């Protein structure tokens, strides 16, 4: 058994893991873990930190509770909570790579991750090859003597392409590489990459895990002791940890993760079906629809398709802007995974930091729209979309 909560179902873990009431002498039996704001912890004896706590950057009781809950959700032995998804990515790469190392990554990664790789880590002589990780032979051919990591997003952002995580892991295991999967889009409710052979799972917990668009965070889950030691050292040494208050907000958000994900998916399936029928929509991309080219793979490696839908409008970029600006319930905003529905134009918003040539090469056109479907009443969401779609051209 990898995790002490692994005998429980997902929702039980989401509620109880890391938050067992404390009945020891002087403790108060809180059912919700307190927010421990203290940055330092006093001790009675010089060489004996109280219950292992010394300084909040190294270990904090509220963050520890969250880390236990995060580990339980991915069925991992360990988890780390960072101050953002990008802080988590930075700490993992610093912990595991050195100058001269090479990463193989999916070609339509989140724009901020590409910027981190291309503009920051490139300065430190870490090379990245972006490839279509759907093609396993291509992946195998891209491995170089200095390759250390394979970095996948599945589904990718915003084209919702899937990689066969189990197939990729047979290559990474054979070649002695570390497989990192960014699981932000599906959350552990719908996909558990560690059980498919990944070594590290990473989330922008700003998204579904937090779930309410009010807390920034990043999480890393893994079960390998050696990788854990390395990342733990860097979490403290780099210092990009999640604050106690943000840890509390994330703990609170997680309790309804299962319920929220079910409703996100239920709404997304209905919106996907509606969009497919609308004459002003050229194409709908959603792994839960039979029209998705990797529908079968989605059924094999995930238990649901989440709340993100991408679609192409008919018309040009000005028509797209007009459409986006005429919606009422879908907030025109970056980010995703909150209870409220959001809509955005990747070419001018989330992926503006990716060059136009690169965007076009991978299929992020000027009329590609990304929806983060919230958990509002579906009839209201469809009415809002229908009004805008009927009139934007
Ligand atoms: N990974 C994915 C898939 C994302 O969508 C994002 C942000 O949108 C990140 C990582 C970065 O996370 P954060 O914004 O929390 O730093």
Lay out the secondary structure.
Layout: H1 10-16, H2 61-73, E1 78-82, H3 85-96, E2 102-106, H4 111-120, E3 127-131, H5 136-142, E4 147-153, H6 165-175, E5 178-182, H7 187-190, E6 200-204, E7 218-222, H8 225-238, H9 244-254, H10 257-277, E8 281-285, H11 295-301, E9 308-313, H12 317-325, E10 331-332, E11 342-344, H13 356-362, E12 368-372, H14 378-391
Parallel strand pairs: 2-3, 2-4, 4-5, 5-6, 10-11
Antiparallel strand pairs: 1-7, 6-7, 8-9, 9-12, 11-12
Helix pairs in contact: 1-2, 2-9, 3-8
Describe the protein in words.
The protein is globular. The protein is α/β, with parallel strands linked by helices and about 400 residues long. α1 (about 10-15) runs antiparallel to α2, α2 (about 60-75) runs parallel beside α9 and α3 (about 85-95) crosses α8. The chain is built from 14 helices and twelve strands. The mean pLDDT is about 95. The termini are far apart. The chain binds pyridoxal-5'-phosphate (PLP). The site of pyridoxal-5'-phosphate has 14 residues, from α3 and α4.
